[in-house]
Write a structure and sequence with these properties.
The protein is an all-alpha fold. The chain contains four helices and no strands.
Length: 169
C-alpha cells in the first residue's frame, strides 16, 4: 500500500465515524423530542451524550479538512505566484492554531484525570473523552504541517472529495 492509499483509507474511516456520530446525534434528538412532546418523558441522559457526540463529530472531521486543505482561507493578494505561498501559510497557521487547541486540551485532560472526573449521569470518564479529542487535535496539527510541507516542496493538490474504491487498493 502506498502512502496515498493509506491516507485515503484514513480519510474514509474518519468520514465514516463522523457520519455515524451525526446519525446518532439525529436519532437521539428525534427520540428525545418525540418522548418529551409526545409522552412527556424525554431521555434523561440526552443532553449529556449529545455534548459528547457533537464534540466527537467536530474533532473527527478536523483532520479530514486539514489533509484536504478544506479550512477557510482568504485571498488577500490575487497573484498566481502567491497561491503556493498562501497554501503553505494556511497549513502553518492551521498547525499553530490547532497546536494551541491540542495544548489546551492536553492540560484539561490532565486536570480531569487528576480528579478522576466522570459525566454526571452516565459516569463516562472525562479523561477518555478529552484524551480522544486531544489525539484528534494533535492529528490535525500533524496533517496541517504535512499540508504546508507538501506545498512548500512541490505544490500538492488536495485529495479528491470522493475517491473511488479502486483508488484505495
Amino acid at each position: 500500500m502506498t502512502l496515498r492509499s493509506i491516507t485515503l483509507w484514513g480519510v474514509r474511516v474518519l468520514e465514516g465515524l463522523t457520519a455515524i456520530a451525526l446519525l446518532a446525534l439525529m436519532a437521539i434528538v428525534l427520540v428525545d423530542v418525540v418522548g418529551r412532546n409526545g409522552w412527556n418523558h424525554p431521555l434523561p441522559w440526552a443532553a449529556e451524550i449529545l455534548e459528547i457526540i457533537l464534540a466527537a463529530s467536530i474533532f473527527l472531521f478536523l483532520p479530514v479538512l486539514a489533509i484536504r486543505g478544506g479550512h477557510v482561507t482568504v485571498d488577500l493578494i490575487e497573484l498566481p505566484t502567491m497561491a503556493r505561498v498562501q497554501q503553505v501559510l494556511s497549513g502553518l497557521i492551521g498547525a499553530i492554531v490547532f497546536g494551541s487547541v491540542t495544548w489546551a486540551l492536553a492540560r484539561h485532560t490532565s486536570r480531569v484525570a487528576e480528579f478522576d472526573e466522570v459525566t454526571p449521569l452516565l459516569g463516562i470518564p472525562l479523561p477518555w473523552i478529552f484524551g480522544g479529542l486531544t489525539a484528534l487535535a494533535a492529528l490535525t496539527v500533524l496533517l496541517s504541517l504535512a499540508w504546508a510541507v507538501c506545498h512548500l516542496w512541490r505544490g500538492c493538490t488536495p485529495l479528491a472529495d470522493a475517491a473511488k474504491p479502486e483508488d484505495l487498493l
